[in-house]
Amino acid sequence: MAAALMSVLDISIVNVALSDIRASFGTPLDQIAWVSTGYMMANVVVIPMTGWLQRRFGYRKYFTFSIILFTVASVLCGLSWNLPSLVAFRILQGMGGGAIIPTSQAILFARYPREEHGMAGALFGLGAVTGPLLGPTVGGLLIEAASWHWIFLINVPVGLFAAYMAWRYIEQPHFEPSMEKVDRNGIALLAVGMACLQYVLEEGNREDWFDSRLITLLAVIAGIALVTFVVHELETPSPVVDLRVFANRSYSAATGVNFLVGTALFSGSFLFSLFCGSVMRYEALDIGLIFLKGSAIQILLMPLIGKFGGKVDGRFLIGFGILGMSFSLWTNGHLATRVDEITLITPVFIRACSLGFIFVPLSVMALSNLRPEQRGNASGLFNLTRELGGSIGTAWMSSALSRSTQANVTAITSHVDVYGQVAQEQVSQMTGAMAARGVLNPTGAAYGLLGQRINAQALVRAFNTNFLILAVLFVCALVLVAMLQKADPTVKVEGAH
């Protein structure tokens, strides 16, 4: 739980510091995103390989090493001297961070008996949800009190504590390292395919997608590498990622739901943060406080669902959560240019409550009924789908927001008659206000202000449209919920303590 808190806190805390890092290094705006992109590229390569690495080295060694690698890389990030060094250390950090949550989940489901999986998953989830809650606020405070370097150095005490606890208390009696042949071709195809795909998703919108030769080339490479990887993994006797786990219907359905959760959660948070910053003109710390106030309920809700959720069919809990989260996105789809704080917090609160009903039973239903030797691999793929859903959703919403805004500007402008009575009255009022302020060209300034109002209205309409699209998309996850199989209460987990 401590390791999970550290890894997810780091993702959200860095986003707050990007402007300060850019100012410190004198980095162009279009390059600073590599601080996040480098981490995510390493992350998505390592996550699917965690099952194989667990079988090769065991939970104790692999988990402790991953935490130490993440902690050492955090120190190096805090000491970095320019952008290339920071990106290199972030890639190293991502290699350690990618293993933490999948390995944590595999350990939990191996150590706890079947009837305690819900509570174990809920308590572990506290660490995973507290990170995004605290990240923006803690990051803002650290930068204000000291400097951006401390957003990385803060990981050191948590990492050392987690590594010590893991090495001392994680036991895996009778563990024998897997001696299966190393799937070098599979590792190479996975690394190339996932790294290229993540780059395309992160940088595509900034490079105008397929108008860029580099994006087109990397998209083709990613497609060929990943298709070849799937065929290779299904044919090789010792795959680095066992895709045969998708033969389990409940796991496949849960993974599909998890993908849509990632799409709705990450892209919805991206749109909401952008709305607060670009329309409401909130500072990063103020946006973080909005998320904190709206989402703090998860800290109380998740243990309760873990304790009492086992008495209710998990499919009903997940379905209820999906409806609630869709409603929160639908609520976001009716924002205006001026809203109060309560109006902003309400959909965040609804979404936080709904996610509590989804996360705990979904991971339990996905992993509990798999064989113990399958769980490490399955947990990695399960987490990867959420990350991919978030990357694809964020890239999609970023591009769609730009296109929708332009279309709305054209639509609104076509209905504005500059010489009409309403427009002339507004221009006259604004001209008088500008003249009173001593503006040299009050008429020109008034028309400029009218254009700003049109652009602002177009932007709000674009945000609302995209939120509603996400709401409709996420409701479709109910189809996959119907495919989930109720967990068998008689299933016992080998090695449970």
Structural description of this entry:
By secondary structure, the protein is mainly alpha-helical. The chain folds into four domains: 1-170, Up-down Bundle (Growth Hormone, Chain: A), CATH 1.20.1250.20; 185-241, no CATH class; 243-397 and 461-488, Up-down Bundle (Growth Hormone, Chain: A), CATH 1.20.1250; 406-458, no CATH class. The chain is built from 19 helices and no strands. Keywords: Cell membrane, Membrane, Transmembrane, Transmembrane helix, Transport. It is found in: Cell membrane. Belongs to the major facilitator superfamily. EmrB family.
Number of domains: 4
By DSSP (H or I, 4+ residues per run), the number of helices equals 19
Low-confidence runs: 490-497
- State which percent range the strand residues make up: under 5%
Short description:
It is a multi-pass membrane protein. With 497 residues, the chain is an all-alpha fold.
Give keywords.
Growth Hormone, Chain: A, 497 residues, disordered C terminus, mainly alpha, globular
Question: Could you outline the blueprint of secondary structure elements for this entry?
Answer:
Blueprint: H1 2-25, H2 34-46, H3 50-57, H4 59-78, H5 83-111, H6 117-145, H7 150-153, H8 155-169, H9 184-203, H10 213-235, H11 249-278, H12 284-295, H13 297-308, H14 314-332, H15 341-367, H16 372-414, H17 421-436, H18 442-475, H19 477-481
